[in-house]
Write a structure and sequence with these properties.
Blueprint: H1 21-34, E1 38-41, H2 47-56, E2 62-65, H3 72-78, E3 86-89, H4 106-117, H5 124-143, H6 148-156, E4 160-162, E5 165-167, E6 180-184, E7 190-194, H7 210-218, E8 227-228, E9 234-235, E10 242-245, E11 252-255, H8 264-290, H9 295-299, H10 302-316, H11 319-322, H12 334-374, H13 384-407, E12 411-420, E13 423-432, H14 436-460, H15 471-493
Helix pairs in contact: 1-2, 5-6, 8-10, 10-12, 12-13, 12-14, 12-15, 13-14, 14-15
Length: 494
């Protein structure tokens, strides 16, 4: 039959007698994989099949039952889910035809039957039996005889309009009338949709998905003036302000999530300041190199001046990863943002260590020289003699940062501040670590100790002429570093 009508039969599934939802669910899942356009189901209880399709959240473009459609119990139990469902029957009360003898329509007969019997459902057998009287009357009047043979020949060769339909018989005495295709419309009313000449409504095809139907019937999407898509999601009227969430019954439009990203002007200001620092640092390095043979510059120890500038550059670069943000942990660039989280303490810590250790070594070298001079001793102190100080400071800083990196690194996390039905409308993202504060405390504690010791050295060398030792300037530098320490650590830990 499928080949005759140029249809492709994808599969045929046989189920047990009176199957329940559990037995039917695997069948639905298999059909969902095949995704046929039409499914014809031959069961006596159609409700389990409907619920199985609901559970799997799949439906074909057309669902046809051999029974159930038009029965009060089926429509009452399925409610709006019965809409679009098709069935086949030899007769239905929505049939658009009138009886040639009584003038009754199919609907008139159904109303009379229900009134007399108090039955909700009107079986086609009742209409078929009642139409026999109309056929007999029309045959008697048309043949104008009571002869049984003549009446039989007249009935066999003519068609009769009854509330059961346009009745005629083939050579075997079978009714020639085609079966009707009936369907529940969007109001839950059964309509005859085929054949067209006796239809009471248009065929509704394709049947929307469950999500599309739930979106239109149960959600607030269209109530709010928005539109449900084929997929059952909400298409927002103002997509620049609202965004769709959920599907089916939960489909709605909510305000777009405010993620509290760093605003562009502030971000631009930060990058501008970093650029300014880099330009100034480059100019300083050029100046130091150009005047490297000057007596005062040589007394200020050009190598350590260069290290101080490089340390400042490294610390300043920590501002750049501070501006790198993303949405949630399923974002494509989450690894890059996680790396940026840990880049902040690394750049800041190493930059501090290089700058501080250079300042520290600088003032220590001067102290050792003048200490030897005060004892009338000649002593040559080379740069390598104070490099151990820089190595120790950098080593301790690196050990703390490495432990931080491997034990409890900073990761990008986002906290929802406000939500609507579980959908975020405002959130804030930050770099977080379970034990991060302990490592920041270790960094801050170690750096504070170093700064205090540097201040002590500055105090001890305050009497040395400023042409040869910049104790006052180093003191100011150390104080500035302390202020940066106090401000930068809480900011980077947020």
């Amino acid at each position: 039959l499928a080949e005759t009508h140029q249809l492709q039969l994808t599969s045929a599934q046989e189920v047990i007698n009176t199957p329940n939802i559990t037995a039917l669910e695997p069948v639905v899942q298999k059909l969902a994989e095949e995704d046929p356009d039409v499914v014809v189901t031959c069961v006596y209880d159609c409700v389990p099949w409907m619920k199985a399709m609901r559970k799997v959240n799949w439906s074909p473009k057309a669902q046809v039952f051999t029974v159930c459609v038009g029965l009060h119990g089926f429509a009452e139990e399925m409610g709006p889910d019965a809409e679009y469902i098709m069935g086949v029957t030899p007769w239905e009360s929505s049939l658009d035809i009138r009886d040639a003898v009584t003038g009754l329509s199919a609907r008139d007969f159904a109303d009379m039957f229900q009134q007399e019997t108090s039955d909700v459902d009107v079986p086609f057998q009742a209409a078929s039996a009642a139409s026999v009287i109309s056929i007999a009357v029309q045959a008697l009047e048309g043949s104008d005889t009571t002869d049984e043979v003549a009446l039989s020949q007249y009935i066999a060769s003519n068609n009769f309009k009854t509330f059961y339909g346009d009745v005629g018989f083939d050579s075997n005495g079978q009714n020639n009338a085609r079966f009707l295709l009936i369907q529940y419309d969007t109001s839950g009313i059964v309509r005859t949709v085929f054949p067209e000449e006796t239809s009471s409504g248009p065929i509704l095809y394709p049947m929307p998905s469950w999500d599309r139907r739930d979106c239109a019937k149960l959600s607030q999407c269209e109530v709010s003036g928005d539109t449900c898509t084929i997929e059952g999601k909400c298409a927002c009227r103002q997509p620049d302000i609202y965004r769709p969430v959920g599907a089916g019954e939960s489909a709605e439009c909510i305000p777009r999530e405010d993620m509290n990203f760093i605003n562009t002007p502030l971000l631009g200001m930060g990058y501008f300041l970093v650029t300014a620092v880099l330009i100034f640092a480059a100019a300083t390095l050029i100046w130091v190199y150009y005047y490297r043979k000057n007596m005062l510059v040589r007394a200020s120890q050009p190598m350590f001046l260069t290290l101080i500038v490089f340390g400042s550059i490294i610390s300043s670069l920590s501002i750049i990863p501070l501006g790198l943000e993303t949405e949630y942990r399923d974002s494509n660039n989450i690894k890059k943002v996680d790396a940026a989280c840990m880049a902040v303490p690394w750049l800041w810590g190493i930059g501090f260590a290089v700058t501080f250790s250079a300042l520290f070594a600088k003032v220590m070298r001067v102290k050792l020289l003048y200490k030897a001079a005060s004892k009338m001793k000649r002593r040559k102190i080379e740069s390598k003699d104070v490099f151990s100080i820089m190595f120790i400071v950098l080593a301790i800083e690196t050990v703390i940062l490495l432990t931080f990196q491997f034990v409890s690194p900073l990761r990008w996390e986002r906290e929802v501040l406000r939500d609507i039905n579980g959908n975020a409308v405002e959130s804030v993202g930050r770099c977080e670590s379970e034990s991060g504060w302990w490592f920041f405390a270790a960094l801050v504690g170690f750096n504070i100790l170093c700064l205090f010791y540097a201040l002590v050295l500055c105090f001890q060398t305050k009497h040395i002429p400023s042409d040869f030792a910049e104790s006052n300037y180093i003191f100011l530098s150390v104080m500035f570093m302390f202020q940066v320490l106090v401000l930068a650590v809480p900011v980077s830990a947020m």
